[in-house]
Amino acid sequence: MSKEERKMYTAAVVTVSDRSFRGERPDGAGPAAAEMLEAAGYQVVERIIVPDEEEDIRAALVRLADERDAALIVTSGGTGFSPRDVTPEATAAVCHRMAPGIPEAMRAASMAVTPRAMLSRAQAGIRHGTLIVNLPGSEKAARENLRAVLEPVRHGVDMLRSGGSADCAA
After folding, report:
1. CB atoms near residue 138 (< 10 Å)
2. Quick one: pLDDT at residue 46?
3. Smallest Cα–Cα separation from 113: which of 132, 133, 91, 136?
């Protein structure tokens, strides 16, 4: 097993959906993201569902980053044009630095599937040593978007968790 394979990082998945929070619709994107993260070597320490309320989303992100010390938090849902889609705003509010290349790469990969990908308002950013990435709310789109960035995101997490000394030449 390589040094990279031996590293185990923690991840958390936050589904943002009024209907899933109320139990009216099963959550497909959250479990799919968790499955992909576990297959990539992350230990998923928590999966939660919150309503489309900016305060609730912010509180969940802060708790998972600051108290649970998750290396990576992925959200699913709330990235569209609906007035209740506020996940990008909540993410930006809790991050100290933004990582625009991640959502740009996801949108670019998704454009090969559907031109509607340009409508995603997803964000990614850094809170202390935690990377936060917004995914779409549908299971299919969440899988496509996470697949597009999972490998480089791992390097970003390595950089955050190593104090910036990860091997950038690799």
Report:
1. 15
2. 98
3. 136
How big is the chain, counted in residues? 170
**Alpha-carbon distance values, 75 to 64, 112, 168 (Å):** 12, 22, 27
Residue 97 reports pLDDT greater than 90: yes
Q: What angle do CA 20, 34, 47 make, to 5 degrees?
A: 50
64 burial (CB, 10 Å; 0-12 / 13-18 / 19+) is buried
Q: Which amino acid is at 70?
A: A
Q: Considering the entire predicted model, what is its pTM? A: 0.93
6 pLDDT tier (thresholds 50, 70, 90): very low
pLDDT at 163: 77
Helix (H) or strand (E) holding 56: helix 54-62
C-alpha–C-alpha distance, residues 135 and 147, integer Å: 11
